[in-house]
Amino acid sequence: MSxxxxxxxxxxxxxxxxxxxxxxxxxxxxFMHGYTVFLLAYIQEFHWTRAEASIAYSVSQLVGGFGxxxxxxxxxxxxxxxxxxxxxxxxxxxLVGSAMATALWQVVVLYGVVMTMGSNCLGLVVFVPLLxxxxxxxxxxxxxxxxxxxxxxxxxxxxxxxxxxxGLSWRTAYLVQAAAMGFLILPLAWIFRxxxxxxxxxxxxxxxxxITPTRHWTLPQAxxxxxxxxxxxxxxxTGLGSYFVSLHQLAFAxxxxxxxxxxxxxxxxxxxxxxxxxxxxxMLSDIIGRELSAIxxxxxxxxxxxxxxxxxxxxxxxxxWLHACFFGLTWGARGPVITATTxxxxxxxxxxxxxxxxxxxxxxxxxxxxxxxxxxxxxxxSYHLAFMLSxxxxxxxxxxxxSLRRPPx
Length: 409
Description:
Layout: H1 8-33, H2 35-46, H3 50-78, H4 80-98, H5 104-120, H6 124-134, H7 139-167, H8 170-191, H9 219-223, H10 226-243, H11 249-255, H12 260-272, H13 274-287, H14 290-309, H15 317-329, H16 334-345, H17 351-358, H18 360-380, H19 384-402
Helix pairs in contact: 1-5, 1-6, 1-7, 1-8, 2-3, 2-7, 3-4, 3-5, 3-17, 3-18, 4-5, 4-8, 6-7, 6-17, 7-8, 7-12, 7-13, 7-16, 10-16, 10-18, 10-19, 11-12, 12-15, 13-14, 13-16, 14-15, 14-16, 14-19, 18-19
């Protein structure tokens, strides 16, 4: 009788794919999240308003959301390695072009469209179908480790981008990033050379557990369930709650009188906590359930926003650290839980397409939140209302996620 557990080589293959997914997503996230620092450089050089400087980021989130459907379709048909190659080329080209930008529309096209589509090809939608096949028993953990790359990239992007801009210039900083992307893309794509045979190395079911055939959901079938739209709403509210705050965190701290490099360092260290936060949340979702772990993450994020609301001056270092740590701890923590829930509810060969469609909600929420926060500041001179709307969005997300606890018919 053959062993119900995968051979050692197959296990190494699965963990290699997970490590490659983490590394690739880290590179993508670090380049994309650096925009929070470039935002201040744009305002200083071009004298744009906060809302104008936020347009490219908002367009990026829209393109990222709607583009996820296309990327999901492509990864189901072309595979992981080809998508990684395509994403690296697009992201590198966008970085080079951004170094030469002289007008707002150019930044919108280069960052909002070109770099974003490249980033999508190096993101979670591309890796989830592969990892869901390889880690059937630890799906939440595997997706959480990959999602934590976003927090790691976000943590290192702000201080590194600030150092490059301060020491060189924002244009040179973009060129340095483009060179790094060109150096890394081929090794990253090489990791996934065996990804398309990964289904043969999936985790076996534990002894005594009967294997049941998987229903292969299609996108139209999923869209006829309330769970699909609840997941879309959860992603929408999570995007709103996060991006009413995140894009403008550094600008908010500088407005309160903190030194830009100091504030970038504090926020970067807080974002670094997303790595254990995301992994712990994902592992908890495998133990206590997806709903409870997501609601716990929402609660911690709300506390982080509350701490920011009480900051009034540059002498309140403790509040800035508390805001950075609590908000950073659960940055992206809902992502693997939502994604694992999607894989639980709608398994099959069309998972990438379904996940891409649901991710549209995240793009919409992030686009609306990031632009509206800048617009609110322009008309009121404060981020107070934006932060309050962040809390309200998180609360609605809690309610929507709790409604997902029964499987779809």
